[in-house]
Design goal:
single chain; mainly alpha; Growth Hormone, Chain: A
Length: 434
């Protein structure tokens, strides 16, 4: 994606073009030289591969059990929507107590869920009700854990490395999006869906080990304990603060609409693979990996950037790119072209997500960071869940392609609203010398 010259940070614009790639690698290396962050990335990389393997396994098992677009949406809803209820509470607690302790406990619970799913599938006792319940449990655990996980990054790196660290996290996430589905497809063909769940349970051990090696100077708290209100009072304060912020408020509103209308195409890929393109688990893995490949390109490009100038425009540009490329995917009708469109969608998906998270991390008051990021997490996880449910149910009536196309057009309309407010948003989100 092209960037207007005035939006390029001076520290980058002043460098010779030939040195840009070298400086990009240097920024990544500099972030990874922070020992706590390096350990976190190593463990998280292994765990995320397992997470993506399980997501493919759950989607494929849902389709095998039901052959229903509506059930695909319901299971995605169970995985992602609990963040709406448990995310704000998790965010308030993340601003009070040791975030590492919250993350460690959550990872143990998620590992037990994966192990249970493995046993039930391996023994043939799984049904759609049990699958829905187990996915719901995992969604609750992740919803409570996510604010601490997002807020922890700012404790692992100095402020000047935060943007690069968020981009590296995205690269890791999307490398896992590429590798995980490929491994899941191979395991489903060779060993069945149960093997995918068993492999995911094992990958949690790497992340748990990494978490035991992280040493922070202190557990971050936003306020002295004696000044604390109730947890629900803290939640209300976070919502009011976010709604009144001239940059964060509109940015998260755009993300909300986009998450409800466009991003659900990822959760509905099993239906596209089976019904639209007449492909099996291998086709689903290829489609998910195509998204991951494009996402990695976007993550590497963003990791080279220093400073915040221009990020608001990049957020808006990548948001419209996601809507347009998703609409092109729906209209393609030819599998190789569909994969190319999905790769572009992956670029838009990650670029908009990384830049939004970076801007929110840096613009939010540190005392409110956990609560504001909990709202980001709610939208990022809960929005696609609600959207997948609505689009999945609508698809049973009018067809998957038409329903998803309506969503893509709605995303374009939301982008137009935000584009007209871009200057005010940038002024509130990007410091003058950022």
């Amino acid at each position: 994606m092209a960037i207007d010259r005035p939006n390029i940070p001076p520290t980058i614009a002043a460098r010779p073009a030939g040195n840009l790639a070298i400086s990009s690698i240097g920024l990544i290396v500099r972030a990874l030289r922070n020992p706590n962050y390096a350990v976190y990335v190593a463990g998280n990389s292994v765990s995320l591969i397992g997470t993506w393997m399980q997501r493919i396994g759950v989607g494929w098992l849902t389709w095998e059990l039901t052959q229903s677009h509506a059930w695909l949406g319901l299971v995605a809803f169970a995985d992602l929507f609990p963040s709406v209820f448990f995310g704000p509470i998790g965010g308030a607690i993340a601003d009070r107590v040791d975030r590492l302790r919250i993350i460690r406990t959550s990872q143990v619970l998620a590992m037990l869920q994966a192990a249970t799913l493995f046993v039930l599938t391996w023994t043939g006792t799984i049904d759609i009700a049990l699958l829905f319940a187990l996915v719901l449990v995992n969604g609750i655990v992740i919803g409570f854990n996510q604010p601490s996980r997002l807020a922890l990054i700012s404790s692992l790196v100095p402020k000047q490395d935060l943007g690069t660290a968020v981009a590296i996290n995205s690269i890791v996430f999307n490398l896992a999006r590429f590798v995980g589905p490929a491994l899941a497809g191979a395991l489903i063909v060779s060993g069945g869906t149960a093997a995918v769940f068993g492999a995911n349970a094992v990958t949690f051990l790497a992340f748990l080990l990494a978490l035991t090696r992280i040493r922070l100077p202190r557990a971050e708290r936003a306020e002295p304990a004696e000044h604390r209100r109730s947890v629900l009072g803290d939640v209300a304060d976070g919502i009011r603060y976010t709604a009144r912020h001239p940059g964060v408020g509109p940015l998260l509103l755009l993300l909300t609409i986009n998450s409800l209308t466009v991003r659900p195409f990822v959760e509905l890929l099993p239906g596209f693979a089976a019904d639209v393109f007449d492909r099996g688990a291998d086709g689903l893995a290829l489609m998910t990996s195509a998204i991951g490949g494009g996402a990695i390109v976007a993550g590497l490009w963003l990791a080279r950037r220093e400073g915040l100038r221009g990020l608001t425009h990049i957020t808006l540009g990548s948001t419209i790119l996601l809507s347009v490329s998703t609409l092109a995917f729906i209209a393609s009708g030819w599998f190789p072209l569909a994969l190319a469109c999905l790769a572009v969608s992956g670029m838009g998906l990650v670029a908009s997500g990384v830049t939004t998270q970076t801007l929110v991390q840096t613009a939010a008051d540190p005392r409110m960071r956990g609560r504001v990021l909990s709202l980001y997490g709610i939208i990022f996880r809960g929005g696609p869940a609600a959207g997948a449910l609505a689009i999945g149910v609508l698809s049973d009536a009018i067809g998957l392609e038409i329903a998803m196309g309506i969503g893509a057009v709605a995303g374009m309309i939301a982008w137009l609203w935000a584009w007209r407010r871009r200057r005010a948003m940038a002024a509130a989100l990007e410091p003058p010398h950022g």
